Structure formats: structure tokens, C-alpha cells
């Protein structure tokens, strides 16, 4: 794996990243950081980093691309892949793969659909995936961490205990979702143990470079950094499809319309995206729009696909 | 424009289509035709046709690929393109571009979102698009027909008056949607006139060959058959994105997961799909699954992307 | 029938009404008149009238108690009685008798419950009742007018053509409800004809005195002013029950809690109420609260039951 | 307090109760006992008991009127009274007093209304009331038990530990409700402690005689058995109003229509009812209809108000 230093690279993506960073720099308005836990609220919304990883592990970056940030919901993609690799299609009997409509529907849909969440990227669905990975491995969060370290080559990558503790302290809504699904028999583990695993996953700190590399298996149609296969080609395609239709909260349609790539955002301000067969991206800027996606992050990805023509559409 | 006869073609797509047709032929279970109007209920669910159009107008086909069928909601794509070409982004202030969640939400979402439908492919959204095209042209259905004839090169392509009359006779639900949106000021034309335009559009009869050709402007990034530009590259990408996230009723996630192409289905049993920059497809088989998509049609497209690797993911 | 002039009466209810009127007079804040049609928007929110009718037809009144106002939804009670008298319990297969929860649910409930509205006092339910009375009589609005004239003894009581025309002009939402129920087969008459009947009923102009007298059959357990029986004792009890649980829009619980009487309000600012076996009341003041009930009207009825102890609880 | 033996009474209500019991005995079809916990599922649906308590404590009864049964949601009335007596109107800022519409709405309404449940008799509302009583007393369940013993004169009345344990074991849905409201700041106590209090209240075993006597304070306008006042006259009226509009799950409208009395049912098959100023009733038969109310219980109360004319309407 070759990590290219931003300043010395003469390859394709570097000038594009630098041009995007300049444009973002000149753009006023960055949204507001998430404020439900102190660690996120303290972030400066003007921070900005972006990285592109080629299939061979070459990484280009700009701005704060090596600064670790709170990955939050981005890790839902990796947990999904790790569980899908283990149990295959049976997973889809416990979680759907349809967009959820607007946020206001989350609970009514769970009720209407008998405790089966709509997709693995809404909180209810991610709780189910974590629950199933936990049953199969005994340590869902540990599996996630090992995978992220291996794919990124960054062995220092870790959970943030303060963030996990803050999530737990404000975790009543996720507890409600888990108990509600448990009432339908769709949760196997005790709710407190499940929440502990879930909040640790959300607390992973990683940089744009780390996450672009860790996402590469989806651009390589299921093949890991070491050449072994995690997912079948078909499963990798499936995860990309779920990312495109469900990966950016209630703005999946808008993200597809503007960016046109499979992507997954987190309230820490990060977004990962996949150009199947070509490269992966990760962008970070903590200011969010009202739907929970990074304002500068979406704008940067929009520019990237416009400048390179690398949209899937 | 060169139409290749199925039996004589030696080019790339023909053997793939023939293999798919054989597999579909051997597959039991085709779903049931739509039964809310007599013309659809009378269709034989074992009919099957499929066509692929290359960017230059070459068409490959198999089975009933030249048999006209009731296009129904497939025409929503063309009406959207015709209106978007005229009014541009202002359209998006009157209709969203997010998936709608499940069917049960259609009315509650309209109410919750003050009469702005979620996307142009649910009935409420298509009524808004038709209303706006009607205001701009005075004959929305006529514009649609002219466009379809020009792109397909089939001047015999026409409305089916019996189907339009049947739709009107069972049109109370669409009338309810239109009046409801009118109560929010989101419909300009008188409801009966709007419904007349809308039901005529749904009644267009066309074949797989016709529709594959008529869809080609989306694979050509906005350029029509005669080389003139209907949409900007960006607008063509946007329509593809909306098709992927919203094109197959409440199964958009599943369609993306299985097929991985922008597509739009109709309850007549047709589905169109786009491989941006490469080709377009249309498949027809009248038997529907419980979500209103052609059973054999989805299966055939699934096979196509698996065999060719031409998914966007 | 003896109509007592307010100024000369020495009987029981008169001093109570006068005391209430004084208190209301001193109370600031009257809410705002309905503004969706000009005739209602023009009303002075400080107008106030109140009447009590004893079972023998003696009427006491205060303030604007003889001033005709727009009855609006109050007439739903009479239409219900006229239809129930004709078809009996079969009506309840087409409309429920449960409170509707909040307004936001109206359409979703119609959808969830297959076009059967929750109760006869929400608009959807009143449309069904009018539709059925229309089928049985050929002139639902005419039947209503004849009944109101007979019970009140006021032969000048009539529709207001301007109000009916205004309602029609802003009638898209009711048209949506009617078409939606028609799509479930729960409407027999053509929607435009039904709406004409419905809006004429809403347009009846009547005074507090008129309406208190017209409501008396419910306090007399089903017996009309002329001594003939319109409803069985059981049916009269049923209508009172439906008024108590469903009569004041989404504030039925609050109205029961504060006033404790079966009642029905209209957006014209009127409210009728029943003390079974004892008397009936009608109060009018055009300023509405955010749930569509007359602010001074509810306050006056609250005072009445507190001062007299004539609540049902 | 004088308890009349059923066989020797010659007073007013006794022959009516005996007639009702005979009619119920001859009526086939009793519904099915609740089956979510073993203790309820084991009940014989043909058990039937009914008691009437006059204001002076005289009790009439028939059938299994002295047999203790699982009170379940009936105790929500007493917990409400105990908390309302302590905190007064402030309670209503934390729980509404409107009917909830149908069951399917429970969670969506909580979400739509920011964690404020619609009324104190749905589970979410009862959890809030218990939470508040717990905060004020430190032992909500103990307060309830002391009150029921004092009013019924039955010092043996107690919780059923097995029932409470069963409720806890199947308590995920109530845990979900409590955590969900906690996420809006509408729950003060830790959720596990709250649930313990709540499930103990549901587990109280009491007979028809016990409950008819314990309910008498609502017929006496707020005065307890020992002559002290628990509630103001106005508060007693308020609780009666909430019982009438919200006391029988999603059948409040139907119960008002058929019975016409304030009432509260439990899934143990019991129902209490109030004739304000006159008497109280309790009926028990474990077979439930699909909305959770005792089939024979509702039928018996319907007969009672028809035979005696003691409906509030």
C-alpha cells in the first residue's frame, strides 16, 4: 500500500482535490455541528478534509485528510458488510433494504412492519445488524475495529471512550427502538449489552485517509486490502445499492441527484463514497445541514463528480 | 436508425437476450396482471418481450419485443423530462425527489409536507408534473405523444382511448390526490382537465423496441435521436438518479439491490432501464408482484446485469 | 311553544345566562373568526349570544341570541339524526363512532380503515351521512331545512347562497375526501352533486334560539316538538354519546373535561349542547381557538355547568 | 359499610343484577382471555361476576362478584386520582386528555406530540402518571395498594407477584414507551424502577365488590369512604370525563354509545363504571373482544343502563 503525500503527488486526483478545497474554502456557510453530545458540539465547522483512494491503495488527500474525527453512522457500512459476509441473505429477513421515507416515519414503520426496520442504515436497522453480528462473534465492536485497522493499515485507530459514554447517556431513543424491536422478537441480545456494542461502534475515531482505504473493498467488488475476498461480487453490489438508496438519512434522493454515488454519512461530518471499480472517497467537515449531512462534504462530492464525470449515472 | 431483426443479429446483446428469454421461459410463476381495469386484466401473464437499444439506435430484441402494450407509469419519465427541459429547477419547488417509503404513506406524506409530493414518479408527483407541463404547453399529452413518436421513429404510436376511459372511470383516487394538492395551491389546472391529460398519458401503447429507443436520450446524457439536446448532462443525470431511487414504486431499494440500474416500471408490466453512456433496455411481461412490478421483467433485468456486468454499482 | 323575552323573564335560567354574559363581557381574548371564506372572516369576534331551551319549548336568551349566524358543522347533528331515523343501524357499517385522534390523522385513518370514516362529525363522516340521506330522500339539504324550520318554529330559516358558493370555491379538500371514499365504494352519489348538498347544509343561517329549540329532540330522548318520535330512546342516547366523544373536533376530551355535556361546534362560532332530560343550549361567538371551537362559547358552557351543576358527570 | 349478601337482598339493584346474570348465562360467545401472560391465559372465559355499590357503601352482587381477579389497567384510574390530588393541573402539562384514535397511532402520536401521551389511560400516559406519583411519594404502588384497601375495606387485597414478574418478562413494549418519553424529558425516574412500579400496579388482585367500593369516590364527587375529600368536585368530574372519552382502549366511542357511562376496562376482564351521584359498578368476565374489553362485561353494563335508565345521556 502506497500513501501519497498530498504535496508531492503529480497524479490525476490531486489537482482536483486541491481545486475543490479552494472552492469550498471560498464558500460561506457550513451548517452546524451535531450538538446532542459535547464531543461533537465542540467541533469547528470550518474544518475540511478530503481523501481519494485508488484500488491499489494509493491515497490522495487535501486539508484535514489525516485528522481523526468521529465516524458515527459511517461504521454502519462496515458492520453490515461483516455480518452479511457471515450470514448471507438470511440477514434480509430481519432488516429491509428500502428507503425509509422521512424521519417522522421511523417508529410508525417499525410498528406497521412488525419490528422489521426498513434498511440497515437507519438506527433501528443498524441495531439489528449489530445484534446479529454480536450473536455470531461475541464482540461486534471488536470485529469492526479489527477490520478498520486492517483495511486502513492504521493500527492506532480506536474507539473514543468519552464519545461512547456520551452516546449512552443520551441513548433513550435507541433504547426505545431496541426494546420495541425486541417486543417483536427481532433482537437476540439483552438491550443494555446491545447498546454498549452499538455505541462503541459509533465512537470510532478515524481520518479521511483511513476511511477511504477501509471502504476500498466496495470499489474492489468485495476484495479486501490483502487480496482475500470478504464479500461476493453480488454482495458488494448490493451494499453499494443500499448506500445509494438509503445512505444519507432522508436525503438519499437528493444525494443521488447531486452526487450520483453510493455514499454513507455520519453526524460527525464525515461521508464515504464509492466509484465502483475505480476509487473510493472520504470527506469530512463537521457542519451539518438540517438532515444531518455535512454541508461542505456534500458540496465537495458534488464538485468531484461534476469535475471528473465519475458519477454512476 | 437501424433496427436489427432478432433472428439475424450476430452482435453482442442478442445472444444474451436469447439466453435470458430461455431462462425466463423455464421459470414458473409470473405474478398476476393488474386487474383494476379490464384492458390490463385481460393480458396473458406469460407474454414476454425484451429489447436493448444502443446509443446509435441499433435495437436488439427477443420474444414479444415489437408487441405494443400499455405503458402506464413508464410515461412519467418522459413527461418529467419534457417539463424539466422547459422550466428547469423551479419544478423541484413543487415536487420532491426523495423515495416515498411505503404506499401507506402517500396521503399522510402529502398532508405532512403541505401538498408537495415526494417525487415525480408517485401518482401525486406525476399529477403535478403533468399539471405544470399542461400549463406550459396547453397539451401535455400531445407533447408526450409527439416526443415518443419522434424518438422511437414509430409514427403509429398512439393513445388507447378505451384504456383512458377505463382509467377515468376508476379514477377516484387520483381525483382525490389532485383535489388534495389543489387545496394546498399546488395544482394550477381544473382537476377534471388535468385528469384527462393524465389518463391519456397513461394510456399510451408502445412496444419494448419503441420504449428502449425513446429512453435513449437518458443514456446519451440528454441528447435526442436527432442529435439535438433535450436536457443538460446534469439534468439527464438527475432523472437517472430519481429513477434509481424512486422508479419502481415501493421496491426501489430492492430493484437497486437486484438490478442496479435506473429504471421505471408500469402496471402494464413494462420496465425501462438505463445504462448511462452505453444502452437502454425495455422489458415487458404483464404478471406483477405484490408491489406492482413485472415479475419476469425484474428477473430478466437482474439476469442482464449479472451476465453483462452492466450495473452502475 | 313560548319564547320568553330575555328582559322580562324571571325564570330559572335567565339570571344565570345574564351572569355568564357579564363574565364573558369582561374576559379579554376571543380568538379569531374562521378565515377560509369571506362571510366568516368578516364576523366580529366580540359578538356573543346564548340561549337555553327547556323541554316544553320555553327559551331563555342573552346577548345576540336571536341573531342568525352560519351554523356550519352544527348541522351534522341533524343530518345524522335524519338519516339514522331512516336507515337505523345499517348506517354504522359505513361510518364509525370513535373519536378520530388528532386532525393530522384524518386521511391516514381513512386509508388505514378502507374508506370508513371514524365518526359522523368529522368531514369525511358527514359526507357519508349526507350521501346516504341524499340517496334515501333525493334532497338531503331540503330535508334538513324542513326539519330545522319545524323544530325551531322559524319558517324564515334558510340557506345562505353566498356562503354555499364560497364553500364550493374552497372545497378541494372535501372533494378529495369524497373521491377518496368513493374509491373504496363508500359514496353512492356523484361527487359534485354530493358536495352541492353538503355545502348547502353547512350554509344554513340560524340563531341561538333556533338551534337550542331544534336540538330539543335530543334532550327529549328522541321526541320532536310536535310530540311525534323521530328517534328511539336508544338512538337519541347514541347521538348524545357520539356528540360527547366526537362533537368538538380534536378537543372532545377537553370539552368533556371542562363542560361535561354532549355538544357540537361549528366554525361559524356556534356550539349546541344537551342536558339529557332537562334542556338544550346554544351559544355563539365567532372567535375560535386553534382547534376550531368558539373561545367564548366553550367558556360560557363551562360556566353554565359549573353554576348549575348540570354536567352529565 | 354494609355488604349485602346476594341471596338475601331485597333491594333495588339485586333483581336487576340477577336478571342480567341470567341473560349473560344464556348468551353464547365470550371472547378469549388475554394470552400474553400465563396467569391471564389460564382464566375461564365463562366466569362472570358483577357488583353495584351505592354511595353509602351498600354493595349488591351476583355470580363471581367476590372472586379476586387481575385488575390490570383498571388501576390506572386510581393512580390518576392519587396523583391529581397531589399535583393538580400541572399533571396535564405532561399528559393530555384526548382520545387516542386507534392503537396503531400510539407511537406516532407520541412522536408527533413530542413525548406527551394523549391521555392517562393509554399505557404511555399511565407510565407518566406513575412516574409522577413515584416522584411525589417514593412508592407509587404502595400508595395505590393502601388506597384500594382503605376504600374497599379489604385489607387482604394485594399484588400478585407472579403476574408482576410475567409482565416484566414481556415488558419490552412498555420499556420502549418509557425510554421514548424519557428521550423527550417526560420521565423523571430510571426506566427499570418505573417499570417495576408500573407492573406491580397492574398486578393487583381485587374482586368486583372491592373495585365497586374503591370507585365510589368518583360517584361521590371526590369524597372517600371515610368522608374525607380526595378530589375537588371539579377534579372528580374531570376523571369521569376522561374515563368516558378514553377509558375503554379504542372502543371508547362504542362504549359511550352502548353503555353511556364513564368506565375503565382491564385486560384481566374487569370493567368499572360510574353513575355520578348515584352508584358505581364493577363487572368481570375474562373473555375479551378484539379491542381488549370484556365481551360479557360490556354486554352486562349495556343491559344495566337499558334496564335502569341510569346512563348519563
TrEMBL record, chains A, B, C, D:
NCBIfam families: Gln_ase, PRK00971.1-1, PRK00971.1-2. Keywords: Acetylation, Hydrolase. It comes from Streptomyces osmaniensis. Its EC number is 3.5.1.2. This is Glutaminase. Belongs to the glutaminase family. The keyword Hydrolase applies. InterPro entries: Beta-lactam/transpept-like, Glutaminase. Substrate binds at residues 73, 123, 167, 174, 198, 249, 267. It catalyses: L-glutamine + H2O = L-glutamate + NH4(+). Homotetramer.
Amino acid at each position: 500500500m502506497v500513501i501519497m503525500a498530498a504535496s508531492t503527488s503529480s497524479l490525476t486526483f490531486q489537482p482536483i482535490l486541491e481545486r475543490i478545497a479552494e472552492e469550498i474554502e471560498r464558500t460561506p456557510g457550513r451548517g452546524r455541528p451535531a450538538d446532542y453530545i459535547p464531543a461533537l458540539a465542540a467541533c469547528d465547522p470550518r474544518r475540511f478534509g478530503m481523501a481519494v483512494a485508488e484500488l491499489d491503495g494509493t491515497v490522495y488527500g487535501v486539508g484535514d485528510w489525516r485528522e481523526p474525527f468521529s465516524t458515527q453512522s459511517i461504521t454502519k457500512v462496515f458492520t453490515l458488510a461483516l455480518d452479511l459476509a457471515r450470514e448471507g441473505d438470511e440477514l434480509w429477513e430481519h432488516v429491509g433494504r428500502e428507503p425509509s421515507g422521512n424521519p417522522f416515519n421511523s417508529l410508525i414503520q417499525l410498528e406497521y412492519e412488525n419490528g422489521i426496520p426498513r434498511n440497515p442504515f437507519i438506527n433501528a436497522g443498524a441495531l439489528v445488524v449489530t445484534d446479529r453480528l454480536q450473536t455470531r462473534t461475541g464482540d461486534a465492536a471488536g470485529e469492526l475495529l479489527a477490520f478498520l485497522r486492517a483495511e486502513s493499515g492504521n493500527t492506532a485507530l480506536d474507539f473514543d471512550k468519552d464519545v461512547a459514554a456520551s452516546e449512552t447517556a443520551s441513548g433513550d431513543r435507541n433504547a426505545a427502538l431496541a426494546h420495541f424491536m425486541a417486543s417483536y422478537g427481532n433482537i437476540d441480545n439483552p438491550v443494555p449489552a446491545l447498546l454498549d456494542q452499538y455505541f462503541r461502534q459509533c465512537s470510532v475515531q478515524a481520518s479521511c485517509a483511513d476511511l477511504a482505504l477501509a471502504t476500498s473493498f466496495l470499489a474492489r467488488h468485495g476484495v479486501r486490502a490483502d487480496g482475500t475476498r470478504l464479500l461476493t461480487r453480488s454482495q458488494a453490489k448490493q451494499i453499494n445499492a443500499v448506500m445509494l438508496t438509503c445512505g444519507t438519512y432522508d436525503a438519499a434522493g437528493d444525494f443521488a441527484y447531486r452526487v450520483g454515488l453510493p455514499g454513507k454519512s455520519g453526524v460527525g461530518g464525515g461521508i464515504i463514497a464509492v466509484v465502483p471499480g475505480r476509487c473510493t472517497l472520504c470527506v469530512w467537515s463537521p457542519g451539518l445541514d438540517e438532515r444531518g449531512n455535512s454541508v461542505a462534504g456534500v458540496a465537495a462530492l458534488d464538485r468531484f463528480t461534476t469535475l471528473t464525470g465519475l458519477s454512476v449515472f
